[in-house]
Amino acid sequence: MPPPSTVPHAEPVATLSGDEPFFIVFNGGSGSEDAAQTRRTIEGKLTDAGRAYTLFTVDQPKHLPRIAEMAVERARRENGVVVAAGGDGTLNAVAAAVLPTGLPFGILPSGTFNYFGRTYGISRETEEAVASLLDARIEPVQVGLLDGRPFLVNASLGLYPQLLEDREVYKQMLGRRRWVAVLSALITLARTPAQLTLDLLSHGEHRLLRTPTLVVGNNSLQLEQVGIPEVAHLEDNRLVAMAVKPVGTLALYGLLLMGAMGRLGDAARVVSFGFETLTVRVRGNRRRIKVAMDGEISWARTPLEFSVSPIRLQLLIPRDTSRLDRS
Fold first, then answer.
1. How far, in Å, CA of 167 to CA of 170, rounded?
2. Coiled-coil stretches, from where to where (predicted)?
3. For residues 230 and 296, what is the distance between their CA atoms, to the nearest angstrom?
């Protein structure tokens, strides 16, 4: 893998004929809509448009990587487009299968915040998202890597994965709504978070940091909304790291509020910086640590290596970009 600094800022953009078959990985367990209705909407819109498609239904999360590979293989044989239909975890898993192939990649998102889709004007509303697929162009988009595994929006360790785990519990009880995510965060932050001592190496410079969490961002919309000024670095084949210095629960509530107001970058207790590559070692003989990648929790061996993928994802986005809605 070449170093990120040698990755070109532009690369040839594939074109679409408009007749490519869609191979759709459909996660029936994702999103707040009724899965059966969502499937009927997808099938109805594509049938009405006369577009060939194959739907691969995921019945259990553990089967998602295998089914994604099946869709990729069919798309390679038939010069098609691979489409991920589901939440952030579904988009991540299917993108991971597509990325090395250079195949066109489309999304029908249903994640709570839909940062990845909204960044490129792709709606959570199924009918609108399918319409975007039918009249799309290809945009090569940057992908982050954690130990070689891709992420679209962010990757994190420490408190942030715990917030995500707790959020899923409350969503199961109360539904997939944004206010549920906020309520869950307030409850999680009420517990005193553990502190990590991290040794960071980037661009030949070491930094020792004590923090409850480290988040590495690859999504301009998310960074803009919380007010992190280094968002411009994402256009330079770089990622953005964000960390909070040790604070108490009340201060964490204050930081949550500042993030909601888009002023997190103004907080004295927040550290952020852009980078091309970042090595993270965890003090205390931690050989493994829990990480979150696009909302999916897993364990990773330390040290952790963050970088930008030398391959860009060939994402289908709406052809008419004058009406992009990132709200």
1. 5
2. none
3. 25
